[in-house]
């Protein structure tokens, strides 16, 4: 199969769809790999690295889309890429369709086949291709939150870990999934007081078992959320509903109950965010302030640590890429039900129920 790896053109997205090590494996299986010139530089991988393992370097993104049967990316195509996608072309990347009707309509119009990393499942229902980026984003949420609590950037002026004689900061985490667990680990490691809320008691029991005593669990409901936001300095939104829009757990009217200079990091922004006031920001302009509350809502957080993120992503995507390349998408999905759950759009039809529900469409849209 002819596989294309274009350069990511989303704002400050420095990751790349595959490492040279991943390309090496595809070449070993007799596939042809086209890499756009400088696609890997942001992650520390250079054209010479890809050429050394047998990739063909192409000068433009148009050349890569034109040559490839399968496109392997990190982030969803943006408007400039929509016309480049061809009928029957296979796209394998993060899409998060439920948060963008424009993107969804564009891919439907293209009559391509879109397999979304974020809805591929393991037999136990976990999301193997979303997990590593959720791990990165969860850990980064605390790094970024700690930074934006500093007074020069309009935060409360709180040091999360405190110092002798001064109480540590308080972190509220919404969701005890991968993002929440990783955020809690980082915050607890800094010495912060951590509260993590979820509706799944099994997850809360797990958190209680593995975390130190200064990480406290609670059941997630509106009453508890309203109570905790009044006293916490940093709120991390890490709620995920597979393939669907995130629920709005903090509404605009709740912001008035938060301390001026408190910080919200909404990791769920890719799925529309779990804070009503969320809108996607970029690494170039990452924050905005509403009612004196600092919002950090960067939609591609792991893009700020591209080497770590690209290697972690290739580790988990490569086995699926090999299946798709070796067998074609139809046979690969027929043999692997978990991969088949990644099918979101097929030849002009939206085949993922949660996306149809997000836009009020019939299943056969």
From TrEMBL:
Gene3D superfamilies per UniProt: NAD(P)-binding Rossmann-like Domain
GO CC list: plasma membrane
Q: Which GO terms describe its biological process?
A: L-alanine catabolic process
Residues annotated as binding substrate are 15, 75
Protein's UniProt keywords contain GTP-binding: no
Keyword Nucleotide-binding included in the entry's annotation: yes
Q: Which CDD domains match?
A: L-AlaDH
Give residue ranges for domain Alanine dehydrogenase/pyridine nucleotide transhydrogenase NAD(H)-binding: 149-297
- Residues annotated as binding NAD(+) are 134, 198, 203, 220, 239-240, 267-270, 298-301
Pfam families in the record: AlaDh_PNT_C, AlaDh_PNT_N
Q: Where is the active site?
A: 96 (proton donor/acceptor), 270 (proton donor/acceptor)
Q: Which UniProt keywords apply?
A: NAD, Nucleotide-binding, Oxidoreductase
| EC annotation from Swiss-Prot or TrEMBL | 1.4.1.1
Molecular function GO labels: alanine dehydrogenase activity; nucleotide binding
Task: Describe the reaction catalysed, as an equation.
Answer: L-alanine + NAD(+) + H2O = pyruvate + NH4(+) + NADH + H(+)
Domain called Alanine dehydrogenase/pyridine nucleotide transhydrogenase N-terminal: residue spans:
4-137
The similarity comment for this entry is: Belongs to the AlaDH/PNT family.
Q: Which PANTHER family match?
A: ALANINE DEHYDROGENASE (PTHR42795:SF1)
Protein name as annotated: Alanine dehydrogenase
Gene source species:
Pustulibacterium marinum
């Amino acid at each position: 199969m002819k596989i294309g790896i274009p350069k990511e053109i989303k704002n400050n997205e420095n990751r790349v769809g595959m490492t040279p090590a991943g390309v090496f494996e595809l070449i070993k299986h007799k596939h042809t790999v086209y890499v756009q010139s400088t696609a890997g530089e942001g992650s520390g991988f250079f054209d010479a690295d890809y050429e050394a393992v047998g990739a063909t370097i192409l000068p433009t993104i148009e050349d890569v889309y034109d040559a490839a049967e399968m496109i392997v990316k990190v982030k969803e195509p943006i408007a400039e890429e929509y016309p480049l996608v061809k009928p029957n072309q296979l796209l394998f990347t993060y899409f998060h369709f439920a948060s963008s009707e424009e993107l969804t309509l564009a891919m439907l119009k293209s009559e391509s086949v879109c397999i979304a990393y974020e809805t591929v499942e393991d037999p136990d229902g976990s999301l193997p291709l979303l997990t590593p980026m959720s791990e990165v984003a969860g850990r980064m949420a605390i790094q970024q939150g700690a930074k934006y609590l500093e007074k020069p950037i309009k935060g409360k002026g709180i040091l999360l870990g405190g110092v002798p004689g001064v109480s540590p900061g308080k972190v509220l985490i919404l969701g005890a999934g991968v993002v929440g667990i990783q955020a809690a680990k980082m915050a607890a490691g800094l010495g912060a007081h951590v509260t993590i809320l979820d509706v799944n008691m099994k997850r809360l029991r797990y958190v209680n078992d593995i975390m130190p005593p200064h990480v406290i669990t609670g059941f997630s409901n509106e009453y508890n959320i309203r109570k905790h936001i009044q006293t916490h300095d940093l709120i991390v939104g890490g709620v995920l509903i597979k393939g669907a829009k995130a629920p709005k757990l903090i509404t605009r009217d709740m912001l008035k109950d938060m301390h001026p200079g408190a910080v919200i990091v909404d990791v769920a922004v890719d799925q529309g965010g779990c804070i009503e006031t969320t809108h996607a920001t970029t690494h170039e302009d990452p924050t905005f302030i509403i009612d004196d509350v600092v919002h950090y809502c960067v939609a591609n957080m792991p893009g700020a640590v591209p080497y770590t993120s690209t290697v972690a992503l290739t580790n988990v995507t490569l086995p699926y890429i090999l299946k798709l390349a070796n067998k074609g998408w139809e046979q690969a999905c027929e043999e692997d039900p978990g991969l088949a759950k990644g099918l979101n759009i097929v030849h002009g039809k939206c085949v993922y129920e949660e996306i149809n529900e997000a836009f009020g469409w019939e299943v056969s849209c």
